[in-house]
Amino acid sequence: MSSSGIAVLLQSSLYETKAWGEENQPDFINMCVEIETRLAPLGLLEALQEIERQVGRQKSYKWGPREIDLDVLFYGDMIVDDERIKIPHPYAHLRRFVLEPLAEIAPEFVHPLIGQTIKQLLQRL
Asked: Per the residue annotation, which of 69, 77, 84, 124 is the catalytic one?
């Protein structure tokens, strides 16, 4: 376990994709990782935001360019609906740039709200 309380277990390949939301910007590089942590969901979010700050992420407009963007997509089969964090990520199942790298490392993971595997969700797009 690293000093941030996060250990990376698996990581996908890098995927270059067109920007989403605000499309008039350079392509994005996306990947997914499976981690192990003892942090609660909100603590994990705070740790990820600290990593973003250390990398140099600057506040920007919604879906604008950024140096790094770390999101919690799933936390096991946990469902969290808090003003600061929503798990599962509310758009994960709709975004190819999320599902492709996720399917590489966790194709049989079942979305806890939808009841389909990542592989099935990707095939639906």
From this structure: 69
Residue tagged active-site, from 27, 38, 71, 82:
71
Burial class (CB in 10 A: 0-12, 13-18, 19+), 13: exposed
Q: Looking at the domain assignment, is residue 109 inside a domain?
A: no
Beta-bridge partner residues of 94: none
State pTM to two decimals: 0.87
Domain count along the chain? 1
Q: Specify whether 81 is catalytic.
A: no
Residue 77 a catalytic site member = no
Identify whether 57 is a catalytic site residue. Answer: yes
Per-residue tens of pLDDT for the chain, all 125 residues: 666 789 999 999 999 988 777 778 788 899 999 999 999 999 999 999 999 899 887 777 666 566 788 999 999 999 999 999 999 999 999 999 999 999 999 999 999 999 999 999 999 98
Q: What is the CATH number of the domain that holds 17?
A: 3.30.70.560
71 catalytic per annotation: yes
First to last CA, the chain: 35
